[in-house]
Amino acid sequence: xxxxxxxxxxxxxxxxxxxxxxxxxxxxxxxxxxxxxxxxxxxxxxxxxxxxxxxxxxxxxxxxxxxxxxxxxxxxxxxxxxxxxxxxxxxxxxxxx
Length: 97
Hints:
Helix content is 75%, strand content 0%. It is mainly alpha-helical. The chain has one domain.
């Protein structure tokens, strides 16, 4: 395996907690830039995780819109939605069409 891939493999083992802590400490003493590289790899994992969360939210929003129609916007509409539902159940407030 190429040295860069071996280094990445060691970092991933540390970040995924599959390597022993004493082994990681020994590797840090031998290679002082390893901690910086591990920190950058961790930041990359966090960014990918966040991007995945945002993509999932967008997909769920599209599914919701497809199933239930577009979301009502505005705080007034949201605040009066329950009242509107109750009033529409009373015959006196139903529209006469």
